[in-house]
Amino acid sequence: MTPAARVSAAIEILADIETRRRPAADSVKDWGLTHRFAGSGDRAAISALVYDALRRKASSAWLMGDSTPRAEMLGALRHTRGLAPEAIAALFTGEGHAPEPLTEGERDRLAAASLDGAPAHVAGDYPEWLAPQFEAAFGARAADEGRALAERAPVDLRANLLKTTRDKALAALAHLDPQPTPFSPVGLRIAIRPDGRGPALAAEPAYVKGLVEVQDEGSQLAALMSEAKPGLQVLDLCAGAGGKTLALAAMMGNHGQIYATDSDGRRLTPIFDRLDRSGARTVQVRAPRGRADVLADLEGRMDLVMIDAPCTGSGAWRRNPDAKWRMRPGALEQRIKDQDEILEKATRFVKKGGRIVYVTCSVLRAENEDRVADFLARHDDFLPVDAATQARAAGLPALAERVSPFGPGVRMSPLTTGTDGFYVATLVRM
Ligand SMILES: C[S@@+](CC[C@H](N)C(=O)[O-])C[C@H]1O[C@@H](n2cnc3c(N)ncnc32)[C@H](O)[C@@H]1O
User: Which parts of the sequence bind S-adenosyl-L-methionine (predicted)?
Assistant: First the structure.
């Protein structure tokens, strides 16, 4: 396919996402299935165009004075891809499968484009209804934080210390030019290409053999902040596909016991293959079984309960840019209810002196500090751990600079730590 035909295809997919209100991944996949002539290179390039357009949907609409899929694509080409107006005009020729030629108005808009005077939610590309939440979390930085959340994310990997060291993993993947991550001592970062495509990791021997796992640096740091040590009894209460479970198992060096569970058994499915690949031998998966209490024997016995809470995922918008536009206020209310319920559930398993580590990949105070404050108001037998002290004790002194100004815990974000947005707070049972 020509570059122009790829742009046309991406506009077609954006229209499908808009009219059928479906996840971007589904529309991209369906397009590939119904256009078999497109090769894997075409599909990857088209998908990258679609995701780039979704990142800057609101600011593109402002710049172009129009919120159609075509305007979204024009905005993305101009601002995310940095194409000059003439280069864009050379794609929009109307010839063959190229999109219709630029109108006079579009040419003017592309030449003059400026976000001067745009409100923070437009300049920062987040939904208008979340503006008060962003203001509460970031104040005058709201638009900058939003813009950083609209950037492309690099591919972060975690060296699996059960099988290798970071230096060896860096050497094994040298052809992809990985760099050590700035905060996590076990992280590797691979930049994505200018066209938005990442490395094909699934075929890399280092990945297949379990030397590395894909995990954002923020998620690695959340696990490291738990200070999981060999010999502990650990419950991963929201284990899902096992990202945190695997990181905890590596920290514990295969000594002690981790119980991994999730209220949705289907979400646990990938964990079994991942455990095999990683060489983690101390994880017992406790999948739900109807009404049976599969955790009854763990009551009051845990040194550490990890809550990687279900959340809006607002911290991971770099990786799921369509999620921010699909999110509705009702979803935030539901997540808050879930988070309160899971914090309550965790108390059943923590022993005296043990701790709950509460993690979200959200940047919203309502899901983070507010949940912890409400929990502490209900439970005078729990105390928050000083996050700066904890970061230093966990060997992450740089994270001590990221203590939340709104309550216990640390905050991370693409703007401040170059990671996905994460929140981590630790609560000790007295
Ligand atoms: C953020 S995801 C977990 C991601 C996972 N820990 C990882 O690192 O790959 C949150 C998980 O919480 C689970 N969940 C939601 N409500 C729950 C509840 N009441 N009890 C336990 N798990 C719950 C969801 O099914 C989902 O898998």
Answer: 262, 308
